[in-house]
Amino acid sequence: MLQISVIIPLFNEEESLPELTNWIDEVMQKNNFSYEVILIDDGSKDNSWEVIRELSIKNKNIKGISFNRNYGKSAALQVGFQEAKGKVVITMDADLQDSPDEIPDLYQMITEQKFDLVSGWKKERHDPLMKTIPTKLFNYMTRFFSGIKLHDFNCGLKAYNTKVVKSITVYGEMHRYIPVMAKWAGFSRITEKVVKHQARKYGKTKFGLERFLYGFLDLLSITFVTRFRKRPMHFFGTMGFLSFLVGFLLTFWLAFDKYMNVFYRNIKGREITDQPLFYLAILAIILGVQLFLAGFLGEMMTTNAHKQNEYVIADKIE
Q1: DSSP letter at 35?
Q2: What is the CATH number of the domain that holds 40?
């Protein structure tokens, strides 16, 4: 087995690839690591794939995968995880903002200190305020919801025991929450390492403010999926039961109060159907039944679900 697999998702990064791969090779040769570099071209519009072809001819440790279109970073990482053959899997961005010099320490933390996952922490960032402030808010919310004490969930530079990447499925925009998925998969030895953040040398950032809105929605989604994916009835069934119970108790109380008014207090009072509370009770009962049915259908879908690979690979270099 190879010691290290380096997975690099990329989109329109033709200028940085030669320098990055040369830098990685220097680090690997210096430390006598056996390695592979898997470059995943996520539907680039420039000459990134041609550059990858040339690099793979010069260095047999370099492999490439080209998507038919742009699927996103999560898709690229998932395919890279499936292809990786190294004992330790390291991910990094292609824009030269992640330093390959961090690789030996990351490898040591996985193999000798026995961590399952080591996440990079860009303590000093070379980014504009419009990016750093939302990033801090995003990281705070993720820490709050997940209980994982990391400062920088979105750092592209991470190291994994290969068992971690073979045990999780990354999709949508869930790459930000790989530590969360790893934790819920049973890999609890998660830590972080302060890493050097370099200013972008080529190209332009792919950052957009909208990703933080999507990121928060993804956080809610991954929290639900990791906890209840295999047992949706536990979530929907519980909510449905509570809603039905509240509706039933309200209806019972209205009927009992009407009975007491008529037969014991000699008060005619309003009809049950004239009271707004009656309709809230009926709504709660209906909602409870629907939630319970949603849980039941979710259980059936989970039992019969078959995962499909939706990513079309246009070309591949092995």
Answers
A1: E
A2: 3.90.550.10
Distances (CA, A) of 175 to 22, 158, 275: 26, 11, 50
Under 8 Å between Cβ of 61 and 154? no
β-strands 86-91, 117-121: how paired? unpaired
pTM, two decimal places: 0.73
Does residue 110 have a pLDDT over 60?
yes
Structural domain of residue 271, as residue ranges?
232-304
Domain tally, the chain: 2
pLDDT of residue 111: 97
Tokens of 244: 């039905």
Q: What is the pLDDT of residues 239-284, one digit of tens each?
A: 899 999 999 999 999 888 888 887 777 777 678 888 888 899 999 9
CA 98 – CA 244 distance, rounded (Å)? 53
Closest Cα partner for 43 from 18, 20, 15, 65? 65
Secondary structure class of 315 (helix, strand, coil): strand
Is residue 172 in a domain? yes
Residues facing 159 on adjacent strands = 90, 118
List, in sequence order, every residue forming a beta bridge with 200; answer none if it has no partner: none
- Give the pLDDT mean for 9-26: 95
User: What's the CA gap between 238 and 259, in Å, rounded?
Assistant: 31
CA distance 250 to 298: 29
Residue that wins the pLDDT comparison between 178 and 198: 178
Q: Do 187 and 268 share a domain, yes or no? A: no
The answer to whether 197 and 126 have CB atoms below 8 angstroms apart is: yes
